[in-house]
């Protein structure tokens, strides 16, 4: 599964992953993609669900004595460490990024929660067996049911209107909103490889984190997955990110834009310093060399003075 793609080699940062928590798989994949895009090297430590990790918050980034949780906070932390995939975005593009991320949270996340945790066929044949296989007895029975209830409560809380007591009352609205969200993403992406320019940004990381699990999961029943697979440019986007940044054929991510620009600035500074030193050296040589008075031709007598000096 996509959530098991955890092969970063990196220090000093270390991130814990839920090893299959479908509540957090979007956040984990978002973080993984952003780390790849920005050039941040991290060591990912998968965790299984035990009594010790039952209340854990994932993903969690550990750096020294600091512990950062939630994908958005982790991305902000990486930016402060100069791993910034959004370095070249304009103010307008930055605002669009925030708007699309909010759209993903509002329109697509509830449908993903329903697809993996509430849909009876998907839950019984995919989510619960896979999740239970990573939990010891009796947690293999308790944890999946507990998380399914949390997902259901979250959907009802964010999408329901009182009085609302059954999920069937909002299922149609959930999937209608999700399909609309996917259509908007497809329209925005167009024929480009990434959403802004020729290199991926945080928006690409969020879209990949939300869409790729839905695209790649072996779901027995999912009209939303069927709709996604009709959007060729969005599925091509996912395939491209997987091939370029998660394939063993591409072990080293593209250097981050900020580091490239810093390197260019350093080269320019070195060039200016060399030119300045050369000018100073030439000036010193000029000052130390023998100086000669400039040759000035003696002025010729004017015609008037010639006439005045001629005897009458």
From TrEMBL:
InterPro entries (UniProt xref): Glutathione-S-Trfase_C_sf (IPR036282), Metaxin1/3 (IPR017410), Metaxin_GST (IPR033468), Mito_Protein_Transport_Metaxin (IPR050931), Sam37/metaxin_N (IPR019564)
Protein location: Mitochondrion outer membrane
Domain Metaxin glutathione S-transferase intervals: 178-241
Region (Disordered): 279-312
Alphabetically ordered keywords of this record: Membrane, Mitochondrion, Mitochondrion outer membrane, Protein transport, Transport
Assigned GO CC terms: SAM complex
Name used for this protein in its record: Metaxin
Gene source species: Dicentrarchus labrax (European seabass)
């Amino acid at each position: 599964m996509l959530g098991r793609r955890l092969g970063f080699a990196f220090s000093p940062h270390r991130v814990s992953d839920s090893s299959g928590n479908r509540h957090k798989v979007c956040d984990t994949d978002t973080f993984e993609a952003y780390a790849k895009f920005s050039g941040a090297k991290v060591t990912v430590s998968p965790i299984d669900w035990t009594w010790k990790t039952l209340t854990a918050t994932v993903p969690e980034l550990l750096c020294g004595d600091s512990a950062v949780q939630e994908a958005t906070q982790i991305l902000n932390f990486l930016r402060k460490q100069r791993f910034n995939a959004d370095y070249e975005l304009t103010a307008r593009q930055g605002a669009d990024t925030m708007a699309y991320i909010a759209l993903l949270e509002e329109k697509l996340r509830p449908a993903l929660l329903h697809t993996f945790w509430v849909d009876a066929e998907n839950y019984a044949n995919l989510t619960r067996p896979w999740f239970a296989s990573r939990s010891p007895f009796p947690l293999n029975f308790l944890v999946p049911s507990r998380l399914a209830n949390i997902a259901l409560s979250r959907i009802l809380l964010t999408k329901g209107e009182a009085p609302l007591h059954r999920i069937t009352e909002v299922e149609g609205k959930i999937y209608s909103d999700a399909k609309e969200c996917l259509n908007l993403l497809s329209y925005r992406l167009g024929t480009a490889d990434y959403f802004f320019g020729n290199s991926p940004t945080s928006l690409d990381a969020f879209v990949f984190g939300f869409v790729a699990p839905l695209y790649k999961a072996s779901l027995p029943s999912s009209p939303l997955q069927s709709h996604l697979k009709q959007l060729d440019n969005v599925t091509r986007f996912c395939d491209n990110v997987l091939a370029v940044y998660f394939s063993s054929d591409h072990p080293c991510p593209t250097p981050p834009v900020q580091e490239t620009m810093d390197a260019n600035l350093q080269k320019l500074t070195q060039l200016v310093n060399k030119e300045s030193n050369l000018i100073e050296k030439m000036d010193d040589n000029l000052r130390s060399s023998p100086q000669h008075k400039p040759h000035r031709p003696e002025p010729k007598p004017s015609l008037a003075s010639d006439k005045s000096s001629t005897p009458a």
